[in-house]
Amino acid sequence: MRRSLQGILFAGLMTVGLVTMATTRSSAQHEYDWGNPDIPYIEQRGFSIGFNLGQSDIWGDVGTKSVIDHYNNSVYKDDIFGNMRFMGGMFVRYTHVPGISFRFGINYGALYATDQWNEEKAMKATNIKDDAYQRYVRNLDIKTNIWESNLLFEFSPLRISNWEFGKLSKSRVQPYLLMGVAGFYFNPRGTYKDLATGTKKEVDLQPLRTEGENFNAPGYTFPKGYSLFSYAAVGGIGVRFDIGKGLGLGLEYQLRWTFTDYLDDVSGSYIDPLHHDIAFLDQPGKSDVSQKMADRSNEIIPGYKHQPGELRGDPGNKDKYSTLSIMFFWKIKKRSSPWWSTY
C-alpha cells in the first residue's frame, strides 16, 4: 500500500509537469528545445524553485533494531497508514555548472516509532535478554513534529565529468548525491494507558525529565537537560529526470545524523522513582506522570518495574531520521542558449 501511494504521487507530479510544459512551450524552437528528442540537454546556470514530499522515519532507541523489522512486522503492516509519517517542504536551488548545484530548503513533517513493532519477534524469543523482547517489554512510543531548515550540496557525477562531449553527461536521467547540514526543532511526545480508566493519554516528554535530566541529589549523577533544537549532518542519494530546461523530477533518499540522543526522549538509564517525587515535590501530579512515562513495562507485565541503573536506551548512538521523497523543481528563468558554449 505504501508503494501504491508513492506511485500515485509520482504519477500526479509527472502529469502536472507535462501539462505545465505543454501550456508554456514556445512556437519558436531553437537547437536546445526540450521538445526535440534528438538534441542533447545540459542544465544551465541559474536558480530554480522546488518542492518535495515523502515518507519520514526515525531511527533511534524506540522501535526496532533493524530496518527490515521496522517495516516487516505484523503491527506495522496491519495499520500501515497509522504507522507511516510524512515530511515535505520547498527549496531554492542554484546550479553553478552542470552537475554542481546548491539547495536551501525548509521542511515540516512528523516522526513516529513504537516498541510494539517488536511484539512478533518478542513472542518467539527464547531468552528474556533477547533484544526484541527487551524492547517490547519497555513499551515506549514516540511522536514528534519536525521543523527543519537545510543547506545541501548536490553533485551529479555523470554530468560533471566531460560535460561538453560525453554522452552520459547529456542524458536527461541523472543519478546524484546530496550532502550538507540541517538545523531542526522537535518536541517528543509519548502515550500511556491510564490503568484506572483504560484510556490513552498523550503528553510532552521533555518537561517530565524521564531519565532525571538536571536532577540534583547527593551521591548521584544525572544527565544534563536536552534542547528541543539540534543539528544534523545530511547525506543522500537520488535519481532525477530532466524533462526540459524548465522542469526536473526526482526520487531521493536523505538520512540525517543528528547531534542529539533525545529525539525519542530515550538515551540512558532508569532512575529511582523517588527522585521523581523529590524533583516535582512542588508540582502535584507531575511526578506520577513522569514515572509512568519513564517505565511503561507494567502495561505489558502487570507489576513489573525496571531497576534503577538498568539501561533504558543506548547512550553511545545518536538518533537519526530519514525521508524517501518525490521532488520536482522549476527553473525560474531560462536562457535561449546555454551560457557555456554554442553548437
Describe the protein's architecture and organization.
With 343 residues, this protein is α+β, with helices and mostly antiparallel strands. The chain has a domain at 2-26 and 45-187 and 228-269 and 311-331: Porin. 20% of the residues lie in helices and 35% in strands. It contains nine helices and ten strands. It has an eight-stranded antiparallel β-barrel with strand order 1-2-3-4-5-8-9-10. Strands 6-7 form a two-stranded antiparallel sheet. The chain is elongated, with a radius of gyration of 25 Å. Residues 1-39 and 339-343 have low confidence and may be disordered.
- Taking the alpha carbons of the first and last residues, their distance comes to 48 Å
Radius of gyration over all CA atoms, rounded? 25 Å
Low-confidence stretches: 1-39, 339-343
Give the helices and strands as they follow along the chain: HEHHHEEHHEHEEEEEHHE
Average of pLDDT = 85
